[in-house]
């Protein structure tokens, strides 16, 4: 029967990452361009982690990317949590002076955040994540992020939010396809 032939044909096709992998790569590439344009040493994209409002790292331009991808930020914690829940950008010259800074991610990966710029990733209907720029190249003290860099970050956030939204849809389609087969 035709159903068996279709199933056999589809078994030979691996769609597990065929939709999401190129979109994730595009997010990574655009993040690197944004990091250079904004002038930060590291940059990352954080997205929702479950329904409770926590965040997880999706991609990072950092030597510590592999470790960061394992970090989970509890709901409402840190500057990223504040930016996510308020949908308002935030620039901090020295996180040690900022009460909302959550050091758990730094502790987990052995890093020292000093200067931070975070801006929400928004779609037409909701905030779906946070774009973060951390520190400057070189040694501290770092110059603060400027209003112009905050504007640049917001422009990159618009494009990255569209890609993240597409990425999440691609993951959903891949899951549905895998379960259907």
What does this entry look like structurally?
By secondary structure, the protein is an alpha+beta fold. The chain contains six helices and six strands. It has helices spanning 2-11, 20-38, 65-68, 78-86, 104-109, 147-180; strands at residues 42-49, 54-61, 72-73, 90-92, 116-122, 127-134. It has a six-stranded antiparallel sheet with strand order 3-2-1-6-5-4. Strand 5 (116-122) and strand 6 (127-134) form a beta hairpin.
Please give the count of helices: 6
SSE ordering: HHEEHEHEHEEH
Distance between the termini: 16 Å
Please give the radius of gyration in angstroms: 18 Å
Question: How do the strands line up in the largest sheet?
Answer: 3-2-1-6-5-4
Global mean pLDDT:
92
Number of strands: 6
Poorly predicted sequence stretches spanning 5 or more consecutive residues: none
Helical/strand content category: alpha+beta
């Amino acid at each position: 029967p035709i159903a068996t032939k279709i199933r056999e044909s589809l078994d030979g096709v691996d769609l597990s990452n065929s939709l999401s992998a190129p979109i994730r790569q595009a997010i990574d590439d655009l993040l690197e361009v944004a990091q250079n344009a904004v002038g930060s040493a590291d940059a990352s994209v954080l997205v929702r982690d479950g329904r409770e409002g926590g965040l997880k790292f999706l991609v990072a331009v950092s030597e510590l990317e592999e470790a960061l991808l394992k970090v989970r930020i509890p709901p409402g914690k840190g500057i990223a949590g504040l930016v996510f829940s308020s949908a308002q950008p935030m620039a901090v010259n020295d996180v040690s002076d900022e009460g909302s800074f959550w050091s758990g991610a730094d502790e987990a990966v052995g890093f020292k955040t000093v200067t931070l710029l975070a801006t929400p990733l928004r779609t037409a209907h909701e905030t779906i994540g946070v774009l973060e720029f951390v520190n400057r190249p070189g040694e501290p003290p770092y110059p603060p992020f400027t209003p112009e860099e905050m504007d640049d970050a917001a422009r990159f956030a618009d494009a990255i939010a569209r890609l993240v939204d597409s990425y999440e849809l691609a993951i959903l389609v891949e899951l549905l396809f895998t379960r259907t087969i």
